[in-house]
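Regression check, sodium ion case 1012:
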Amino acid sequence: QDVTLKLHQFLPAQSAVPSLILDVWADKVEADSGGRIKIDRFPSMQLGGTPPELVDQAIDGVADIVWTVVGYTPGRFPSTEVFELPFFVADPMAASYAYWKMYEADMQDQFDGLHMLGTWVHGPGLFHTTDPVNAPSDLQGMKIRGGSRMVNDMLTAVGATPVGMPVPAVSESLSKGVIDGATLPWEVTSSLKVAELVGNHTDFEGNGLYTLTFIMAMNQGAYDGLPDDLKAVIDANSGLDFSVRAAEANLGADAPSKQIAEDMGNNFITIDQATVDTDWMPLVAPIYGSWVADMDSKGYDGQAMIDRARALMAEYTAAQ
Amino acid sequence: MSDLAIGITSFPALLLLIFLRVPIGLAMFLAGLVGLILVTGDTTIPFARLKSETFTTFSSYSLSIIPMFLLMGHFATLGGMSQALFKAAEGFLGHRKGGVAMAAIGACAGFGAICGSSLATAATMSRVALPELRRSGYAGGFATATLAAGGTLGILIPPSIVLVIYAILTEQNIAKLFLAAFIPGILAALGYVLVISLYVRLYPGNAGTRPRAAWRARLRGVWDVWPVLIVFALVVGGIYAGWFTPTEGAAVGALGTGAIAWANGGLSWDSLGESFMVTARSTAMIFFIVLGAAFYNGFLALTQVPQEIALWVVDQGLSPLLVLALILVFYLLLGCLMDSLSMILLTIPIFWPVMQGLDFGFVSLIDLQSARLSDLVQSGAQIAPDVLAQAQAALAQGIELTRAQMNDIGLRGATEGALSRINTEQVAIWFGILVLIVVEVGLITPPVGMNLFIINTMDRTTPMAETYRAVLFFVASDLVRVVLLVLFPVITLALIPW
Amino acid sequence: MYSFFLKLSKLMAWLGGAMLTALIVMVCTSVLGREVNGILHADWLVSLAPGLSRWLLDLGIGPVNGDFELVESGIAFSIFAFLPLCQLTGGHATVDVFTNYLSDRVNQGLRLVTDIVFAGVMVLIAWQLWLGLASKKSSGQTTFLLEMPVWWAYALSLSGAIVAAVIACYVAAMRLREVASGRVILPIDLGANH
Ligand code: NA
Ligand code: NA
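Current build output:
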């Protein structure tokens, strides 16, 4: 082969994102290049470092390709947080469509040193708790693990006590009662044994509680160094289409994990749209305001980003 | 040279550096650095990794437990806990044949319950017990060997720094590993007591006795060790009960022992400063090895060596027990030359994938389903009698329940996936305790045994050769224990809930 | 010179110890806050004295916000601050079974080469940490909850790394003088202690 690229990420090889998205992508690129590109895969941070370092590893060329959660490096790529606002995203594919469009139009300068391959969001996040959550008042005093800055703000707003800890610590902390619950999309709950540790899952009709944004990106130098025909292979497998399909695969991985919780006989609570509007939205609405103000102070037009994201999501939905 | 060849060549190169007295952490760091340069072609990538890797290695929440446990051990000494433990044990055992030595082992076990390090336990208890042993007429080599062996209890009995490192490397639950170490730790102490009673019968001239202590004095001695009991219950019990994470437990323990030391008048600005200096040196030494190992292991991963070795071992089709035995023998041999922490950091990333690929079949699906089902019945769950009877009959005949059956019963956590997680965890815990013991044996095996050196510097009148000779009896008891634990995994796993 | 560097490295170790102690106290406060917060939310207390529990909760009794990331940032400083003392007093773990069989002259040579390489590595570490600091500063990365710039913790750590690098260079220079003069200037090894 002509080039070997190192793909580095933090999940074990058999989890959903690596096996259903990253490996599929890498296999396809290898095949399309007629074997001239080889992609060595390093799961579970095998090349060293911690998950927040992945972005820098790709920029510095320690790894050639990385997949990571943007929220692991708070403050660096603030624009992507628009998709992490509470009750903002109904359809992850629509959000990923909007995310890529907005990346192409406005965010490229923030990701300097990286050649973006895909931008997507995971399936809707929801509450997984030891005691049932039917209303915000049930969350009073509950210690909940949140996944990002925005999620923690949301947890505080609805009355829970956010606890910061890395994902792998969730199982142990749940089993010990160090935390009373966690906010997670369905897909990761199977590997964390969440359905075995908690008995209640609270989901929301319409827009999901929150989503996290992902990026899959390549070292700019490694991309620029490819001959044109291999660049074309990479290009054909990345971008808008790939991002939407990645979101679809991510969402698809939710079902088997949800099935496990169903098999366990767990309690499922779905909050209907009317209750979200009356009981939940008023609590989290200030987060929109403070996020816009925060963006404005950083020199971005926060409200415009919200409007643009909504318009693009509507555009995608209308086209379906 | 292929990446794989570079990776494999790095082993002898690394050993050569270490044997040329290059500090172990530095040797691993250099092997990783040079290896990365060879594999990637220039210095860009290794240097770029260094931009963040030193910081992220040192800023680890899980590893912050290490300086906290070290400080806790010093505070415990300042608080007079080592002295109190020895006095209490001596009150009960001192008048027996070999009794003062047995008391020293008992005190080591007690100190090990609040100290995470072997060398600190050996050093601390030697300061207290060595003069007493010599004064009671114990031969030099026997006294030093007893304390060297007793020191290993510092790491066998939880809390344990080496076990923390192992837990992090294999992504296992620290609390469960601590719990698993408990019975083997007690067995170790009992084994050493047995060795002492044999030794004094074989060589009667090597030990003296003390007059029998009055009951009043004995009770007084027991009363004085209550701070040790409280700290142990709070730290290890609290971590296990889930009051706090292991790091939080270490912080609570350090603050608690510090408070006790202060209340006992053992903590002054000077002694606090001295605690910082000792903690600083030990912590820096440990973390530099951790850093070197992280850098070296990152390089090894890039060359795919660990995966290739794991595949190769599985391909050989050796029996799992034989593979385990070979690994343990390897540790025993390496342990004659290297210290425990470096060995764990260097080898677990290579051996753990191998062990993970082996099936020891501790728990079968039938076991798991039966256990979960009887839990469910005992919890008073409402199950249709005919459904229950059918399931119980099936399990009794050795037929596994189907997914549909489990749904009907409301049986949770008894699937293939759950089974494989349980088995992996059991192997990890069992292997971890075995490795812990064999690397600790390394601390007292000649020629390089860190515990032997520490104690030798405290008793210059005893020639090293005498210590070497007497310590072999303790090593023998360790080996017997390893064999027992290999043949009967239940000793290690009995306390661990699935 | 030696006594100056010894004082400097002890000062760094003291600062690292003070930071460690501060973290220990902070973590204990956080544990206590979390447990008390749990009790205040307990059904029995809420029904018994609703006003009291509300009032105490409104005071903000709970886990220390961002305790996790404070430990991570602080402990990195402690460890970097501990390095100089270990470096100067030869505290790193070594294996000397084989070198014991070599002549003093050879051992002195090995020690010289080792300490020169060690100095190079410590300088490399400090230099790359500085570059890491610069990149964290320009990227604006913050911590999760406190949104504290990550480069602050890098800057604290860099102070320890720089002192350790300077001391490693001093040690290497003294080894060179030892070989040249045939005298022993620095302690060889005080033995590992863990
Ligand atoms: Na211990
Ligand atoms: Na040894």
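Comparison notes: Residues 2-181 of chain C form one domain. The two ends of chain C are 28 Å apart (CA to CA). No diff flagged against the previous build.
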